[in-house]
Amino acid sequence: MEEGAVSKPVAVTACTSMALFYVAILYAPTFILRLPPPSSLKSFMIRRFICAAISSIVSLLVCSLILPIRSKGASILFGVYGIRVDHIWQAVVFPVSLTSLMYAGSLVLKFMILVESRRERSSDGEGLSFECIKSALQGFLELIISVASNVLAWRNFVVAPLTEELVFRACMIPLLLCGGFKPYTAICLCPIFFSLSHLNHLMEFYSKQNYSLIKTFMVVGLQLGYTVIFGSYASFLFIRTGHLLAPLVAHIFCNFMGLPVLFSQRNGMPINFSLKQALMS
């Protein structure tokens, strides 16, 4: 691919269209196809999973037509999209290690709680017996099964990260770079399109959850600010590694950890209540 082979207006228009299409298609079953409302949360989420998958496939196809790729072979296209099989462990270990620095306080506090819990068990005469290890393993397996059967977990850890990274990183960044934008400009510009995909939450919070207008703007504003910051970081990972797996694992890790905790109430120090909920989950 050659830099500047795609005009900047075409690149920006294509990215904006893909962002809007990613959101609009979520409402297509109800407003365009006139399908009846889903009967359960599971059917509602499955419907959205299908819409997000269609949006990702369409974006990949359109992007392949716009990009100035001489060879339309699958291996060439996958390479442009960052879908590669080489250097997989670097694309996983380095981004997760870098991302975990943002959650260092949370991880240390979790470790301290585990140590304190272990001390309490020891003081009660409960040693590290075979039954204790067996109970912990059973609890871990039950947690894995519970998460695997939870449709919201599939949304947060599989469908949303995968489809969003395909559209907003794998498709948009090559378009912006071919449009003549510098890498740092693409890193700053791509998150703006990424934040557009979350504007639909504005009406959802206001109409469905009966939030006040001020509270709605505060919640959505915080979400948009976080998505812009993370989008810049994910774009940096994609450009730096050329591997889609790098921003993908960072996305999944951030969804699992939630917002970073800035303060705590442990040992007389102020603590954030949201961390307690995260630790108990």
TrEMBL record:
Give the principal location in a single coarse category: endoplasmic reticulum
Q: Which UniProt keywords apply?
A: Endoplasmic reticulum, Hydrolase, Membrane, Protease, Transmembrane, Transmembrane helix
Keyword match Isomerase: no
Ranges that cross the membrane: 6-28, 49-69, 89-115, 166-196, 217-238, 244-263
Q: Which reaction does it catalyse?
A: Hydrolyzes the peptide bond -P2-(S-farnesyl or geranylgeranyl)C-P1'-P2'-P3'-COOH where P1' and P2' are amino acids with aliphatic sidechains and P3' is any C-terminal residue
Q: Where in the cell is it found?
A: Endoplasmic reticulum membrane
GO biological process: any one? Answer: CAAX-box protein processing
Its topology with respect to the membrane? Multi-pass membrane protein
Q: Which residues form the signal peptide?
A: none
Q: Where is the CAAX prenyl protease 2/Lysostaphin resistance protein A-like domain?
A: 151-257
| Gene Ontology MF annotations | metalloendopeptidase activity
What EC number(s) are associated with this protein in UniProt?
Answer: 3.4.26.1
Q: Which GO terms describe its cellular component?
A: endoplasmic reticulum membrane
Matching entries from PANTHER family are given as: CAAX PRENYL PROTEASE 2, PROTEASE U48 CAAX PRENYL PROTEASE RCE1
What family is this? Belongs to the peptidase U48 family.
Q: What is this protein called?
A: intramembrane prenyl-peptidase Rce1
Q: What is the lineage of its organism?
A: Eukaryota, Viridiplantae, Streptophyta, Embryophyta, Tracheophyta
